[in-house]
């Protein structure tokens, strides 16, 4: 059998370590996306990292480092097609850019693992997770700074994540709570998400909402048994 001539235990163990490392690190990155109910979650990021590691490792074993670099360049461009699939335009808003960037980083982690750069792969994973978590409060704080002076018009939206069966009732509850706080609702929509969940989003009439009011509404609704996740966001425009 040709397999007996090509199989080398040391090389196989090296490949096994690369695969396992890519899968674990990709899953760590994807866990944060899964928690936030994004389209590309734990499994997608883990498989992207594993696939990148497999192709790079295969090229390196067959033709050496030069060919591995060539495959990495193809991976960098090819992963863009997968990332484009999670970017969605909803009216004037674009969603999924951060998730697409995260997939791109997962592929980079896999490429590092495939070339046996375990320390670099682990370090990159830490940086990606930090970027997706610790930078979020800073981004939110920056987005809210101009609104205090009333320099820009802002559109607020409140989003609840729940099971599809509970969506109609939660939509009515969300609208009632907002109107009770004197925040008129301009539009509501229910958007399907991953893992049999939907997002119920209520967009407010353009106004200068008080952050504390929205925080209180979200905190109250988050305690509802049928709500998986509750949040609010603000978007500014000229």
From TrEMBL:
Domain MgtC/SapB/SrpB/YhiD N-terminal, first and last residues per copy: 20-139
Annotated localization: Cell inner membrane; Cell membrane
Bilayer topology annotation: Multi-pass membrane protein
Record carries keyword Cell inner membrane: yes
Role summary: Virulence factor required for growth in low Mg(2+) medium and for intramacrophage survival. May be involved in regulating membrane potential by activating Na(+)/K(+)-ATPase.
Cellular component aspect of the GO annotation: plasma membrane
The entry's keywords: Cell inner membrane, Cell membrane, Membrane, Transmembrane, Transmembrane helix
Family: Belongs to the MgtC/SapB family.
Keyword Protein biosynthesis: no
Protein name per its UniProtKB record: Protein MgtC
InterPro entries in the record: MgtC-like_C (IPR048640), MgtC/SapB/SrpB/YhiD_fam (IPR003416), MgtC_SapB_SrpB_YhiD_N (IPR049177)
Record field: transmembrane: 12-30, 42-59, 71-88
Domain MgtC-like C-terminal: 156-232
Pfam family for this entry, one: MgtC_SapB_C
């Amino acid at each position: 059998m040709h397999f007996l001539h090509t199989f080398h235990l040391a090389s196989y163990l090296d490949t096994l370590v690369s695969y396992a490392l890519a899968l674990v690190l990709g899953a760590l990155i994807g866990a944060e996306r899964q928690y936030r109910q994004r389209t590309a979650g734990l499994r997608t990021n883990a498989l992207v990292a594993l696939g990148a590691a497999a192709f790079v490792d295969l090229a390196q074993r067959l033709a050496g480092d030069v060919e591995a670099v060539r495959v990495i360049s193809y991976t960098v461009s090819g992963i863009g097609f997968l990332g484009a699939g999670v970017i969605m335009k909803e009216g004037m808003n674009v969603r999924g850019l951060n998730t697409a960037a995260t997939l791109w980083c997962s592929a980079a982690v896999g490429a590092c693992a495939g070339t046996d750069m375990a320390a670099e792969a682990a370090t990159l994973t830490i940086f990606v997770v930090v970027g997706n978590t610790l930078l979020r409060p800073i981004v939110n704080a920056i987005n809210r700074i101009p609104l205090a002076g009333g320099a820009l018009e802002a559109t607020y939206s409140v989003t609840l994540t729940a099971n599809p069966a509970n969506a109609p009732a939660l939509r009515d509850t969300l609208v009632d709570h907002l109107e009770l706080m004197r925040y008129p609702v301009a539009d509501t929509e229910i958007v399907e998400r991953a893992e049999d969940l939907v997002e119920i989003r209520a967009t407010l009439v353009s106004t200068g909402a008080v952050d504390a009011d929205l925080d209180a509404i979200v905190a109250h609704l988050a305690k509802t048994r049928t709500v998986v996740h509750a949040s609010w966001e603000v978007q500014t425009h000229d």
